[in-house]
Specification:
Layout (H helix, E strand, L loop, with lengths): L3 H13 L5 H9 L7 H13 L1 H11 L7 H16 L4 H14 L6 H13 L1 H8 L3 H5 L3 H11 L3 H8 L6 E4 L6 H10 L4 E3 L6 E4 L16 E3 L2 H4 L1 H5 L6 E5 L5 H9 L4 E6 L2 H14 L4 E4 L14 E7 L14 H4 L4 H18 L1 E11 L8 H10 L3 E3 L1 H7 L4 E2 L4 E3 L9 E8 L3
Parallel strand pairs: 5-6, 5-8, 6-7, 8-9
Antiparallel strand pairs: 1-3, 1-4, 2-3, 9-13, 10-13, 11-12, 12-13
Helix pairs in contact: 1-2, 1-3, 1-5, 2-3, 3-5, 4-5, 5-6, 5-7, 6-7, 10-11
Organism: Microbulbifer salipaludis
GO biological process, one term: methylation
Function: Specifically methylates the cytosine at position 967 (m5C967) of 16S rRNA.
């Protein structure tokens, strides 16, 4: 099957069934379409996922009964996305979506697809008016997440929703061990790629428009990497010193691992992750930059199975989280996450944090980080840990005095999409008391 709309529907259906992510499903789907259709496939998958909460409400108003076939329901969402958000002519979008039903072996439903999409077109203004008071419709976020963000951030919630629904910028991290940011900015200009320096990251550049990494000067030679500005703050915040023994826990795909080595090539650095497949990405990034680290495939929550007993000077714990701070880059989070995921994730984070603390030298530093914007995973998590851990001290307030990057919290600091320049991220710099 090489119909991009049919494949997009199949991807969206698998997301709703919690059978993967866009990051894993899209490469599979892209192999099945012609080169000329790949950008359309990506647009349909990312766009439909981004606005699925809103599109599902529209579909509910248009369909007289629940659509039980998940691929058919997904195809309807793909069709509605085209009508609502793309420049594809309406008649072409409807006709191609009807043909996609045949490609999915849903020929019996072509009349339904055609009817629903034409009704959506005819009744667009009426539907918008009827649904405009629904918070899920206005925010394009599932109800539970819309409520959680509003409860956490109040009047800032609307700005966060808008940022989450926008296409993200492409941000680069210049390898300062090989050239300066100004030098690389000049190389970009010579290559006809407009860019601006990041506000907070000394190594960061934001491109005016995304480009293929193959167009970036020196990418294969490790002169530059793709990484959001907020994520670029991790390595400088950890502040590695020459010769130190450092652990990057939950390291994949390796952006922060590589950044640490760019700042201090002379490190005894271990990169740990539980998924072997994801560690392959770490190895690829290390090789491209020409740096090395010890690779450990193991569970951070159970160090007794892999730790050699030698404590670490510093630990970067980029804890598994809801990823609610990077929805603009991963809109499938709106389909994949559920409200009951949050307490489960918080429990896992607490377990890993306590395990990592045992591995840290007295006087050492642990940087706790997530790409979440929910307090249960962030400030509440760290505040509870500090209250229960006599030798733990939060050094983040000192950082905020030196570099006002984020919002001070009960513990740690928070960066928010739309409020700050990068993705949503949380950081808490914890120091272990000396004996």
């Amino acid at each position: 099957m090489n119909d991009p709309r049919a494949l997009a529907a199949r991807v969206i259906a698998r997301l709703t069934q919690d059978r993967g992510s866009l990051q894993r499903l899209l490469p599979w789907a892209e192999k099945q379409v012609e080169d000329k259709d790949r950008s359309l496939l990506r647009e349909l998958c990312y766009g439909t996922a981004r606005f699925a909460p809103r599109l599902e409400l529209i579909l509910g108003k248009l369909s007289k009964k629940t659509i039980k076939d998940e691929e058919l329901a997904a195809l309807m969402l793909v069709g509605l996305y085209q009508l609502e958000y793309t420049r594809i002519p309406d008649h072409a979008a409807i006709g191609a979506t009807v043909e996609a039903a045949r490609a999915l072996k849903l020929g019996h439903a072509t009349g339904v697809v055609n009817g629903v999409l034409r009704n959506a077109l005819r009744n667009k203004e009426v539907l918008t008016r009827k649904l405009s008071g629904n918070p899920q419709f206005s925010s394009a976020h599932p109800e539970w997440l819309q409520q959680a963000i509003k409860a956490a951030w109040g009047t800032e919630a609307r700005t966060i929703f808008t940022a989450n629904n926008a296409n993200p910028p492409m941000t680069l991290r210049v390898n300062l061990s090989k050239n300066s940011r100004d030098e690389y900015l000049e190389q970009l200009q010579q290559a006809g790629i407009p860019a601006q320096p990041c506000e907070f990251s000394a190594a960061g550049l934001v491109l005016e428009s995304p480009v293929a990494v193959t167009r970036l000067p020196g990418f294969d030679d490790g002169l530059v990497s793709v990484q959001d500005q907020s994520a670029q703050l991790a390595a400088p915040l950890l502040d590695p010193q020459p010769g130190e023994k450092i652990l990057d826990a939950c390291a994949a795909p390796g952006g922060k691992t590589c950044h640490l080595l760019e700042l201090q090539p002379d490190l005894d650095l271990s990169a740990l992750d539980i998924e072997e497949e994801r560690l392959d990405r770490v190895i690829e990034n290390l090789e491209r930059l020409g740096v090395g680290a010890q690779i450990i495939c193991a569970d951070a929550a159970e160090p007794e199975h892999w730790w050699d007993g030698e404590p670490f000077d510093r630990i970067l714990l980029d804890a598994p989280c809801s990823a609610t701070g990077v929805i603009r880059r991963n809109p499938d989070i709106k389909l994949l996450r559920r409200a009951d995921d949050i307490p489960e994730l918080a429990e896992l984070q607490g377990k890993i944090l306590r395990a990592m603390w045992r591995l840290l030298k007295p006087g050492g530093t642990l940087l706790y980080a997530t790409c979440s914007i929910l307090p249960e995973e962030n400030s509440a998590q760290v505040a509870r840990f500090i209250a229960e851990t006599p030798d733990a001290r939060d050094n983040t307030p000192q950082l905020l005095n030196e570099q006002p990057w984020g919002l001070p919290q009960e513990a740690g600091m928070q960066l928010l999409p739309g409020i700050h320049a990068g993705d949503g991220f949380y950081y808490a710099k914890l120091e272990k008391a000396k004996k």
